[in-house]
Write a structure and sequence with these properties.
This protein is mainly alpha-helical and 261 residues long.
């Protein structure tokens, strides 16, 4: 693997044991730099006299358009194709959820996307309706503060029968193709977060410079094995180096990454 920035070297450790070096190659392409990436991002902190608010007024110009034409084209074609091709499977999942658990098949969860603006993502419901969904934000905030590996709290949740399998393979996220189609999300980008923009520090807010995605560099480079800081480095690297071919490579690596995870 080629030389990477010093502060990002720890990112490699989580997936060194994988049988393929595909992730290493992708990470090198995204992070390789002559400079220290974290220092670059710190120098571009989107703060103004300590004011905390939405990022739209101070978005880093190096991020370019939050959704270039080539990216929006991929999103429209990909989301329509995905919804059409997966329609029988999505219907089968919906019928299964209805059969094994009472309550709605789908639910909408508040997340924060481009410029830190709130919106609601579509998801298949994989936990019982009486389980508190609002605890997810406090769990993520705790992971941010402790910088522990970003493990899910499935062991604390009342997951429906088969729900763990859906969650492991990202099936519960497939309805977000609707969010992609209407322009709230992209196929590839930083994951939309439950934690508001104002709770992020400095260069971490670069993740809000682009549309959030269903999959991203974080998903194919360690995901739940990484810490919050490592995820922020991956998100910032994607914002800086996104391209058509990087998006294609991330999409192609997503299914193998889910299977390995």
């Amino acid at each position: 693997m080629s030389q990477v920035a010093t502060d990002s070297a720890t990112l490699v450790q989580s997936w060194k044991s994988k049988p393929s070096n595909a992730d290493d190659v992708l990470l090198s392409a995204a992070l390789s730099s002559d400079d220290n990436i974290q220092e670059q991002e710190r120098s571009r902190e989107i703060q103004a006299n300590g004011h905390v608010g939405h990022a739209s007024a101070s978005r880093n110009v190096s991020a370019g358009s939050p959704c270039p034409m080539w990216k929006r084209s991929i999103d429209i074609v990909g989301s329509i194709a995905g919804l059409l091709v997966l329609a029988p499977f999505l219907c089968a999942v919906a019928v299964y959820i209805k059969c094994v658990s009472r309550g709605p098949v789908l639910f909408r969860q508040l997340r924060y996307g481009l410029d830190g603006k709130p919106f609601r993502v579509w998801k298949f419901r994989t936990i019982e309706v009486n389980d508190g969904l609002d605890q997810h934000q406090s769990h993520v905030a705790d992971l941010m503060a402790s910088n522990r590996p970003l493990q899910k709290r499935d062991h604390e949740l009342e997951v429906i029968p088969g729900g763990a399998l859906f969650r492991n393979f990202g099936v519960d996220e497939l309805p977000q193709l609707i969010n992609v189609l209407i322009g709230e999300m992209s196929l590839v980008g930083p994951r939309p977060d439950v934690v508001p923009y104002g709770q992020y520090d400095g260069w971490h807010r670069r993740r809000f410079d682009v549309l959030p995605g269903i999959t991203g560099l974080w998903q194919v480079c360690g995901k739940n094995q990484t810490t919050f800081t490592e995820m922020m480095c991956l998100d910032a690297a994607y914002v800086r180096r996104r391209s058509f071919w990087l998006d294609v490579r991330i999409i192609l690596l997503t299914i193998p990454a889910l299977a390995w995870d």
